[in-house]
Amino acid sequence: DNARHYAFLTNLYLTAANLDVSYAEKNLKVIEQGITLSPTRTPFYYSLGRVYITKKLYDQALEAFKKAVELSPKVPDAHLNLLAAYVSSDKEAEALAEMDIIRNLGGNFTPTNYITFGRVLRVGGLTEQAIAVLLESVDRYPEEASLYSELSSVYFIANNKAKAIEYAEKAAQLDAQFAPLLDELKKGDSVK
């Protein structure tokens, strides 16, 4: 009865649930056992929240993600999961409040966290906020090409092709792997 084994199995079932929803139900039992063994292990609550979102049980998902934040208040992933749950359950006021908390985490925020933050906002229909977050990210990490690429994609989705091209050019200048993105934008193709 090792909690790490349950954590591994939980991640396996989360992935399997993308192919077969019945794994979400199996995963609930595994997560419960994991929490019994290690009630302060935050990833179990992330997984629990994701399972509830898969099952469209948003109130339970919110409770699981709130527990993760309670256990790890300075960890960006805990807050990003809670933000995603607020956005998924159409709780815009709570999402915006959580967004402020995330912004105040300061030094713990990586480029990958910023990309996740921007995507959660964009998918939730909060495009202006996604752009603001990603502009903040390129100010903080001006040499990170992936941030410019993500910003380009959000501008493209917002129907601002000129800005999309501007940021794709910057991404391609920093890292040649982003040149195809720029080529597609200039041809007018969709962003992949």
Structure, explained:
This protein is an all-alpha fold and 192 residues long. 76% of the residues lie in helices and 0% in strands. The chain has helices at 3-17, 22-37, 42-54, 58-71, 76-88, 92-103, 111-123, 127-140, 145-157, 161-174, 179-187. The N and C termini lie far apart (44 Å). The model has no long low-confidence stretch (mean pLDDT 89).
Decide which structural class fits the backbone. Answer: mainly alpha
Report the average pLDDT across residues: 89
Strand content: under 5%
SS elements, strand count: 0
The rounded distance between the terminal residues' Cα atoms is 44 Å
- Give a short account of the largest sheet: none
Give the proportion of residues in helices.
over 70%
Tertiary shape = elongated
Q: Give start-end ranges of low-pLDDT stretches.
A: none
What letter string, H or E per element, gives the SSE order?
HHHHHHHHHHH
Radius of gyration: 18 Å
Write the layout of secondary structure elements.
Elements: H1 3-17, H2 22-37, H3 42-54, H4 58-71, H5 76-88, H6 92-103, H7 111-123, H8 127-140, H9 145-157, H10 161-174, H11 179-187
Helix pairs in contact: 1-2, 1-3, 2-3, 3-4, 3-5, 4-5, 5-6, 5-7, 7-8, 7-9, 8-9, 9-10, 10-11
List keywords for this structure.
single chain, 192 residues, mainly alpha, 76% helix, elongated
